[in-house]
Amino acid sequence: MTKPLISLEDVTLCAEGDVLEHLHWVLHRDERWAILGAAGSGKSLLAAALAGKVSPRTGTLRYYGDGLTASLRDLAVHVAFDKRPGGRELFHQARWHAALESTSPKVSDLLVGNAFDQGHEEILIRMALDDLLERPIHVLSDGEWRRVQIAEALLSAPQLLILDDPFTGLDAGFRERLRGLVSTLMENDTYVLIIASDPDEIPESVTHVLHLADGQIRAQGPRTAVLAAYSDPDGAAQAPSVEPQACVPCPSDHDAPPPIVEMRDVTIVHGGVKVLQDIHWTVRRGERWGVVGPNGAGKSTLLSLILGDHPQAYANEIALFGRPRGSGESIWEIKRRIGWVAPELHRYHPPLSTARDVVCSGFYDTLGLHQPCSDEQKATAARWMALLGIEETGERPFRSLSKGTQRLVLIARALVKEPELLILDEPCQGLDTEQRSRVLETLNRMLASAGAMTTMIYVTHRPYEFPRHLTHKLELRRGRVVRQIVLNRTVDQMKSGCLANGSRPSLSMP
Q: Quick check: helix, strand or coil at residue 4?
């Protein structure tokens, strides 16, 4: 066996309420490791310590650096995918405002420097960024921004590269490309350490796995043995992929339920680039749409038009809840009827907000709770938090929670006011297997109990993350609609879902 690269001897780590105790682990140079654990297990804390950002409370963390005197902080890069560069969080609508394009840094500003050479160019091509160099960073999709962060880390040529859930938020094609890149790096001089919440996210090139649970190392050793013993607490399997049983035109009959969203010939342009082009789409009351497409296809831009966040909505023919945009409605009138989750939403809540504050802010559609909630609202928030298994986090600072737990808090925020339209953009991103199963089961029960009138738009790159009760599928590619199909239900069934008096049943808690 080759000599160690890193060793931990009875190490205890503490940061922001997370604790890892009595860690014993040796990472040898000829081994390729992944750290596996549920949300909140301490994976990111251990990664930060390995990158030299957190010092052990007790014990010894040692790096064997070929006689070099540099510290781990100088030799390791930890990519956590949690911030925009330079702390540029701005505001969540910033991506859609053209006025910021002149002040926002471009991808090339971050990645291309004086030392640019052929090796740098190869990295940009492999990360599919050569066509994005002139794009402002603030307009990038979540998946595109993740690719930029990985490229930035690679260009710094670290000896140790720690990737924290790197496949989350990436489309299927790029996930496979990244797996190949990780394998190539592992064969060369860069040591890559993968952090994962799901065993399926561990690349085939990984030879060893460290399993964290309950603040301790639960298991460590060869990949096959550790993964064979690993199981989620409920033994939950992945939800089946939702694929069309029939491909028929979406209905446009006069007897169909009333439209919630109507778009006619919608085109959106950013920096001279058509992000969306010639979009014709109608979402009717009671329909549950799955929206798919690769990173950069225009999915988030499409949703921003519905949420009232995109200023170009007024230059297009768009109607929401039967009322054309620009006809005198306020953005708050729109948001009052919508509950939503987005991959980047956690960045914009005030630092001192508690988890309960974030959930309760859903009653007012604000980022931050700026007015007191009634006792009834507090009780409703508590019930949704209990249903999602996060009731004990109520008084904890939202920013101190793991990324997976933050996502559960934001899902509770979306559901808490029983909205007419539910928009879930990658709601399971960052969740471990148990949490994902809990969310999908909650949605399945909720949609089944609410009847045929509940309207939902659900975006994901992973077919097994769709809830069971989808009725339609929209596929985007390069800003265009390439397919609209009906799933699993006939047109007559969808018509019959409309109540005789036009009312909608309560989106009741299951």
A: strand
CATH number for the domain harbouring residue 211: 3.40.50.300
Single out the residue of 76, 62, 74, 80 nearest to residue 23, CA to CA.
62
Token digits of residue 116? 């640019």
Q: Are residue 217 and residue 349 in the same domain, yes or no?
A: no
Alpha helices in 256-402 (DSSP H): 299-307, 331-335, 355-360, 375-387
Query: Between β-strands 259-270 and 273-284, what pairing exists: parallel, antiparallel or unpaired?
Result: antiparallel
Q: How many domains does the chain have?
A: 2
Task: Based on the fold, state whether residues 194 and 294 are members of the same structural domain.
Answer: no
**Secondary structure (3-state) at 387:** helix
192-231: b (≥16 Cβ within 10 Å) or e: bbbbbbbbebbbebbebbbbbbebebebbeebeebbeebe
Nearest alpha-carbon partner for 208 in 366, 5, 445: 5
| Closest of 150, 149, 165 to residue 199, by C-alpha | 165
pLDDT 10s digits, 32-52: 999 999 888 999 899 999 988
Domain interval for residue 34: 4-229
Tens of pLDDT along 283-319?
Answer: 999 999 999 999 889 998 999 999 988 889 888 999 9
**Same domain for 350 and 208:** no
**Short-list 257, 332, 325, CA closest to 288:** 257
